[in-house]
Structures are given as structure tokens and as C-alpha cells.
């Protein structure tokens, strides 16, 4: 469903992503790990067509993001890092705008997708509130609601639990797990227990390169007696 | 093209979600009427026309239109919401167009609010309606050109102040080109033909026929092609 083919991005002389290649199938939740600045967000931005790759390409549901961006963009929902939103709109106005852009312009169809997204993300109680007055946890869920509004087959989530308290983290994890059956999901995170709890696949990226493409269980078998955190630190600590 | 409309709708209504729009409209009307009455001595000219209002409008636009346009892309970049827009199924051309048209419509609202002056002159005298209508049409076209400059400069930065200053400066150059003092200066530096050619790019030169009651085809083409050129550059800048 989601395919990254040799994605490479240069910023001047710095190579932010180097030949990143992987595929995610329906039913997969891929945990995309790496230290800060490893190229996680850059890769996701290229995959969603926000920034053009220097080399390589991505495809969503068979549609190349460079050749057929509109078709590809219809098939995924994307939660950008730190969940940018139009702060001055109410939750309902904002989601209704996204619904318009996604082609749900018929009143009934729109109401249906809105109610579904608001219910899944537990936002019904704040639907008439301005986004800037909401707490971080609610705002993150509005971002998530925006991504799942059109029930897309693919989801790209950049640090979906960032800045949430433990209860909210658990809530969002549960939500993502519950959607995994019929979707291909990529999520980036710093939190290794999260990968243990939700993901059936794991990719570790460091200095722009994929250094591990495996499953959490296999990775632990290969490094007996070590936790994911130990393995992560071992693989991504460099001497320079 | 539907997405362009929904983006237009969000943007246009967005102006009225914040108090800034109302402050702007009031300040614009005050400035327009005050300049016509106290600098142009509209009532002392004994002439039932809108000439004095039109005469000062380019200078009012010089400050007010960059103030409207500065947020167009700078604000999206600062808050990160442009990442949201460009991962929705909309092309950059549609996005630029939707936002530009919304701002243009807002300026049109501001221009239309000077209708009180028309009522005044038609009460006091017997105006020649031709120049009134063509003058307003010319104003609207010229506003589009100012706004396209502002939209373009706004795409270069996430800082609204920088965007404002640069677009004011650029617009100022296009106003000065038609000013006699400035063209005299040009003639002293360049050969006559070159100086003439440069002053052909002035907003004021092309606005003048509209004030006199003609819809000049040259002016119409100039403003439209100038606007389209800036918007095209705007798309290129955003696509990087």
C-alpha cells in the first residue's frame, strides 16, 4: 500500500535521507524509529508529497506521489509533526473544511463523516469550541480526526503521541490499534514501549539511512536478553 | 476546481473570524475619505466626481494591501498549516488561486464600502457616472496587482513583517515608475526610449485612463498579466 523507493533528500551538503526504501502492507503498523534529526520527518514529508525528493519516489496505493499526486493524496491521511491546525476555527468548522476539500460536500455525507471522526476521536463535547482554546491532548486528537476523516486506506502519523500525558497516550494508541486491521499505518515515535505495544513492524533510521527493517519480536530474538531500548541505543549511538 | 472554491470560502470567512478584518475595514474607509476630503479638498473643487478619491487610492493601497496580503502564506508557513494544505488533494495552482481570490474579494468589500462618497457626490451634484464605474473597475484591477505582489513576497518568508516591508517596497517602485520626478531621473540616466519603456510599467500610468472614464484595453491587459505573472511566480516559490 505504502511504498518508499530510494527516497533521498539533500539540504545543501547535508543528506537528510539516504536511499530510504520500504513497503507497508494493509494490516501493518510500522513503527518508524530514529534519533532526532535522523530523517524520520523528512522521509514522511517526501512520502506525502509535501517536499519533493532529491532522488527516488514514493507511492501510495500504486499511485506515484510525483506523477499522480492528487490520486495518491486521496488515499492517505497525514498527521504532520506537532499537528498544525487553523487555530481560529472551531473543531467543527475545521473538520468541515477538510471534508469539503476531501469531496464530502453533500450535507448528509458530510455530517456522517464528521460525526464518525468526532466520535472515534472523542471530540463530540468540544465540537463547537475554537481550536486555540483546546488543551494539547484535544488538539492532537483534532489532528488525528482530520487524518482519519475520509477513512483512508493509508495513514502517515508523525509522532502522534508527542506531548500527551500518559492517559492520553494510551487512548491514542488504543485508537490507532483499533484501526489497524484494514489499513496500512506508518507512525514515527521516540517512545519504544509504544512500538512494543502497537507495531508489528519496526524500522530504525539513523543519519538518513535505514539500519533495521524487522519486527519487534525478531529484533529481540537477535539481541537476546536486551530490551528494545538497549537495542535502539546500541544501534544509533555513534562516536562522533 | 471545486477545491479552489472551498479554500476560497475558508479563507474569505477567515478574515471575519478575527477582529483584524473589522479594524482594517474601518481604517481603510477613514483613510480613503479623509485623504479625499482633506488632502484632495473634494468638496471645494466644485466637481461632482470621484477623481480626488481615486487619486489617493494607489497610496492607500500601498500600505493597506500589503497588510492584507502579508499573512497569506507567511502565516501558513509559520503555523505549519501549509503542510496540511499541500498534503490534501489540491494542486499548488489551485491553492494559490483560492487564497488570492479570497484576499481580492476582501479588498473588493473594502473598496465597495467607499460607496458613501458616491452617495455624497450624487446628493451634492450631478456626477458623470461613466468615470465613476470605470474608476472603480480600475481600482479593483490595480488592487489585484498590488495583492499579487504581496502574495508572492509572503511566500518567501514565515515572517509577516518582512513580507509586509518587501511587498510595500516593491509596490512603491511600481508606483514611482510613473511619477514625473522619477521619470525625469530615469531620463537622466537612461536613453529616452529606455526610460519611456520603464515608465510603461507603472501602476499609476495604467490606472489613469480608468479615472478618466475609459476602460483601457492596455491597462486591463497590463494589470491582469502582471497579476498572473506574480501568481505564477508564487506557485513556483511554493513548489521550490
Keywords:
heterodimer; A: 240 residues; alpha/beta; Rossmann fold; four-stranded antiparallel sheet; 9 helices; 10 strands; 37% helix; globular; B: 240 residues; mainly alpha
Major beta sheet summary of chain A: 6 strands, mixed
Total strand segments of chain A: 10
Number of helices of chain A: 9
Number of helices of chain B: 13
Compressed to H and E, one letter per element, the order of chain A equals EEEHEEHEHHHEHEHEEHH
Largest sheet of chain B: none
Question: Would you tell me the overall average pLDDT of chain B?
Answer: 90
Radius of gyration of chain A: 18 Å
Query: What is the mean pLDDT of chain A?
Result: 90
| Rounded radius of gyration of chain B (Å) | 19 Å
Provide the structure class of chain A.
alpha/beta
Q: What is shown here, in short?
A:
Chain A is α/β, with parallel strands linked by helices.
Amino acid at each position: 500500500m505504502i511504498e518508499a523507493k530510494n527516497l533521498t533528500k539533500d539540504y545543501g551538503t547535508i543528506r537528510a535521507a539516504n536511499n530510504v526504501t520500504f513497503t507497508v502492507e494493509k494490516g501493518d503498523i510500522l513503527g518508524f524509529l530514529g534519533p532526532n534529526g535522523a530523517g524520520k520527518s523528512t522521509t514522511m514529508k517526501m512520502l506525502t508529497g509535501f517536499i519533493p525528493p532529491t532522488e527516488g519516489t514514493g507511492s501510495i496505493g500504486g499511485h506515484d506521489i510525483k506523477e499522480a499526486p492528487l490520486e495518491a493524496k486521496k488515499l492517505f491521511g497525514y498527521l504532520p509533526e506537532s499537528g498544525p491546525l487553523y487555530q481560529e476555527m472551531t473543531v467543527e468548522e475545521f473538520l468541515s473544511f477538510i471534508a469539503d476539500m476531501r469531496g464530502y460536500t453533500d450535507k448528509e455525507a458530510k455530517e456522517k463523516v464528521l460525526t464518525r471522526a468526532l466520535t472515534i476521536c472523542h471530540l463530540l463535547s468540544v465540537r463547537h469550541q475554537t481550536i486555540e482554546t483546546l488543551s494539547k491532548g484535544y488538539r492532537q486528537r483534532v489532528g488525528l480526526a482530520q487524518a482519519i476523516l475520509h477513512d483512508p486506506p493509508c495513514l502517515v502519523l508523525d509522532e502522534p503521541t508527542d506531548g500527551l500525558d500518559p492517559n492520553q497516550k494510551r487512548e491514542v494508541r488504543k485508537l490507532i490499534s483499533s484501526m489497524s486491521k484494514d489499513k496500512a499505518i506508518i507512525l514515527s515515535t521516540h517512545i519504544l514501549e509504544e512500538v512494543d505495544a502497537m507495531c508489528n513492524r519496526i524500522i530504525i533510521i539513523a543519519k538518513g539511512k535505514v539500519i533495521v527493517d524487522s519486527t519487534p519480536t525478531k529484533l529481540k530474538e537477535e539481541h537476546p536478553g536486551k530490551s528494545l531500548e538497549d537495542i535502539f541505543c546500541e544501534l544509533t549511538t555513534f562516536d562522533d | 476546481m471545486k477545491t479552489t472554491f472551498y479554500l476560497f470560502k475558508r479563507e474569505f470567512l477567515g478574515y471575519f473570524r478575527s477582529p483584524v478584518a473589522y479594524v482594517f475595514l474601518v481604517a481603510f474607509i477613514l483613510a480613503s475619505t479623509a485623504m479625499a476630503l482633506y488632502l484632495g479638498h473634494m468638496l471645494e473643487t466644485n466637481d461632482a466626481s470621484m477623481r480626488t478619491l481615486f487619486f489617493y487610492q494607489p497610496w492607500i493601497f500601498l500600505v493597506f494591501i500589503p497588510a492584507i496580503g502579508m499573512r497569506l502564506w507567511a502565516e501558513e508557513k509559520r503555523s505549519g498549516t501549509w503542510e496540511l494544505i499541500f498534503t490534501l488533494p489540491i494542486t499548488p495552482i489551485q491553492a494559490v488561486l483560492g487564497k488570492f481570490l479570497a484576499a481580492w474579494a476582501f479588498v473588493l468589500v473594502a473598496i465597495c464600502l467607499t460607496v458613501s462618497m458616491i452617495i455624497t457626490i450624487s446628493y451634492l451634484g450631478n456626477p458623470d457616472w461613466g468615470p465613476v464605474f470605470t474608476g472603480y473597475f480600475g481600482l479593483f484591477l490595480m488592487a489585484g496587482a498590488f495583492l499579487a505582489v504581496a502574495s508572492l513576497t509572503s511566500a518567501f518568508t514565515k515572517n509577516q513583517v518582512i513580507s509586509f516591508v518587501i511587498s510595500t517596497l516593491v509596490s512603491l517602485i511600481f508606483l514611482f515608475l510613473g511619477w514625473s520626478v522619477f521619470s525625469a531621473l530615469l531620463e537622466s540616466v537612461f536613453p529616452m526610449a529606455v526610460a519611456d519603456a520603464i515608465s510603461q510599467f507603472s501602476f499609476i500610468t495604467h490606472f489613469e485612463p480608468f479615472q478618466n472614464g475609459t476602460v483601457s484595453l492596455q491597462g486591463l491587459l497590463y494589470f491582469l498579466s502582471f497579476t498572473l505573472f506574480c501568481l505564477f511566480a508564487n506557485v513556483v516559490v511554493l513548489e521550490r
